[in-house]
Structures are given as structure tokens and as C-alpha cells.
Amino acid sequence: MDLFNVYPINPINIVRAQGSTVWDAEENPYLDLYGGHAVISIGHTHPHYVQRITEQLNQIGFYSNSVEIPIQRELARLLGKVSGKEDYHLFLCNSGAEANENALKLASFYNSRKKVIAFSKAFHGRTSLAVACTDNPSIIAPVNETDNVIFLPFNDEDALSNAFKNYGEEISSVIIEGIQGVGGIREASVSFLRLIRKLCDQYASVFIADSVQCGYGRSGLFYSHDYAGIEADIYTMAKGMGNGFPIGAISIAPKFVATYGMLGTTFGGNHLACAAAVAVLEVIQQDSLIQNAATVGSYLIEELRKFDQISEVRGRGLMIGIDLPSELAHVRKDLLEKHRIFTGEAKPTVIRLLPALNTTKEMADQFLTAFTEILEG
Q: What pairs with residue 251 in β-bridges?
């Protein structure tokens, strides 16, 4: 049996990792400024993380949600404290797509409506309803197509207001990334997020803050939507939550009432996943990593904006998009092949930086030096 070939692969075999450095099979070191799609939030193989998982595995790795799992409550308490949403409730699952799927479903249970507002360039996942809310027809199979999703231009307040005027009593939820990742590191404006909150309150619709990639401290705030000074009804999260261990969750406002069987999962909230997530939050809290993301990210953005060759630098904290003109489309490849620096992309020519939250100024300078050499070469 061979693999089903759906991924374009860099011919590099990474066999070892520590912090923000990874090594290939020939022992060549690489600086990791992408973290596998914003997944590595506290650095590879962090000692506290490894210890937490090892200790848990030596006790019990898995049992179903039909028994008490105290570490779930430990995770919920710590997440509430670090995120500032202590009165919210937590439902645990396995991935970002599953988190968004459950959020959309919970919203529909809440108000018995079907329509969802999503936005241009949005990416919310690959499962049935999550992918239907994703603005990429090439990954939406015919079975996923639905008339229930209304796509609007990102940051267009008039279009949003008109949609609610036309469909307000039918709109179950509005789902939005505070900072779009796949969409090219595009930030929702403060006024746009506040208008979503206002209209959802006015029409009894549910505000879903997709924080799968832009959340968990990456923006310099726990949830990137926090910069607008509003609270969403449901926050979805996953990538940085487990530092590589599969886990996702939704944080749910107090107005929602749980009933048995409403949501469910086999693997969500298992002992090992919770141990990984608790370790991540402990390190984030103890090492002030959200503040570090804000500080180092601001430094990087400020330095990058000094390059005249760059079309635009977008983002916040350690979620940065470098929009390049077409003649510089080779830069990302050169960073990897000539300087051994991993970065991401958003097509056609945006370099995405999504490094660990404990990235240092020295690492930022290493990247800036390499970037300068390529542009001057």
C-alpha cells in the first residue's frame, strides 16, 4: 500500500527537534519559523511538556468520556484563567475543523436556525459544514455544498448590515477568524468585529470566533479577537493548544445550556491530550509567552516594514504575513534551500511566519539577516 498523494512534499526528512530548531536525517539544522501551521506554540519537545505527557502515559493514556476524567476540569480551569473567560464552559474535541463543526452545530441548536455568514478568503476546516464555510471551491465536494452559507466580503460593514436586514431572522451564526491565516494574514478591523457583535445581539445570532490558528496567544492576546474589546459567544481553538498533540476545543458562553448527547466525541478530552494542553498553558503562563509574542512580533513587523521591496507587512504578534511582489516569489524557497529556514505561505506570494511563542529576538534577527541577503542578492 502506498500513501494517498495529497500533499506537496519538501524533500527533507526531519528526525529531531528542540525548541525552534529541527534537524534532518543528515543532521543539518533548520530554524523553524512555521511550527507546522502554527501548531508548535512552546517549542519542540519542551522538557515540561515531555514530562507531563510521559507521566500521564505511565498512569493512563485513554478512557472514554463515560467516566470521570479530572484532568479535563484542570484544563478547563487553567484555560479559563489564562484566557480571561472563566465563566465560559469547555467542550473538548480533536481538531480545528471539529471545533468549528461543533460550534456551528451548537449555534444552530441554540436558535433553531440554519444560515451561516462567512467571509471571503475564510478557512475554517475540511469537514462537512466547516468546509462549506471555507472560501475555496476546490476543496468543497458536491456533498458539502449547501445554500445555508452566505459569503460576504471581509471587513465590508455595509454588506454585513444588508445581509442581516435581508436574512436576520434566519441567521444562526457568524463565523470569522480574527486574523485570517490561509487567507493571507488579513486582520478583521475593530469596527467590523464590533458590528458583528452588535448585529448578533440584535438578531439573536451567535458570534463564533475562529481562533484555531490566530488564537492561543499567537497575536499577543489570548484570542486575537480580543483586540476589538468584545466577547464572542463561542471561541474555537486547536493548533497551538497541544503543541503537536491532536486536541481541539470550543469555549462556550454561559447562555448556552448543555444537554446529554447534544455534542459528543470518542477521543476528545482524553487523558494524554489534556496532559499536553495543560503543559502548554503552564509554560505559556510561567514564561509570559503571550507578552513575548507581542514583543518579538512587534520587533519583526517593525523591521520588515523597512524593506521597500515588500508590498505589505500584515499581522499581529507572531502571526505575520509578508506580501511580496511576483518577482520575489522565489524568496520562500530560497529561505528554505539556501538558509535552512522554514516559513509558510499563503498563495500566491505571501510568506507566513507562525513561529513558537518563545521565539527570541536573536532568532528574529537570524531570519532578517537571511531575508536581507536574498533581497540584496
A: 90, 235
Compute and round to an integer the Cα radius of gyration of the chain. Answer: 21
Q: What is the mean pLDDT of residues 205-226?
A: 98
Q: Does residue 377 register a pLDDT over 90?
A: no
Residues 6+ apart with CB under 8 A from 340: 28, 29, 30, 31
* Cross-strand bridge partners of residue 92: 249
Q: Cell 436586514, residue? A: 165
Helix or strand holding residue 93 (H, E): strand 89-93
Hunting for cell 463564533 — which residue is that?
208
Which residues face 323 on adjacent strands? 312, 350
CB burial readout 326-354, b (16+ within 10 A) else e: eebeebbebbbeebbbbbbbbeebbbbbb
Contact (Cβ atoms closer than 8 angstroms) between residue 207 and residue 200? yes
Mean of all residue pLDDT scores within the chain: 97
Q: How far apart are CA 161 and CA 338, in angstroms?
A: 49
The sign of the dihedral angle between the CA atoms of 364, 366, 372, 375 is negative
DSSP state of 43: -
Task: Tell me the residue type at 107.
Answer: A
In terms of Cα–Cα distance, which of 309, 266, 237, 289 is closest to 80? Answer: 237
Per DSSP, the three-state class of 211 is coil
All three cell numbers of 301: 513587523
Quickly tell me which residue has 507587512 as its cell.
313
Query: What is the total residue count of the chain?
Result: 377
**Ordered alpha helix ranges (H), the chain:** 35-38, 47-57, 70-83, 96-111, 128-132, 157-167, 190-203, 271-286, 289-304, 331-339, 361-376
This prediction's pTM: 0.97
pLDDT digits (tens, 9 = 90+) for 31-48: 999 999 999 999 999 999
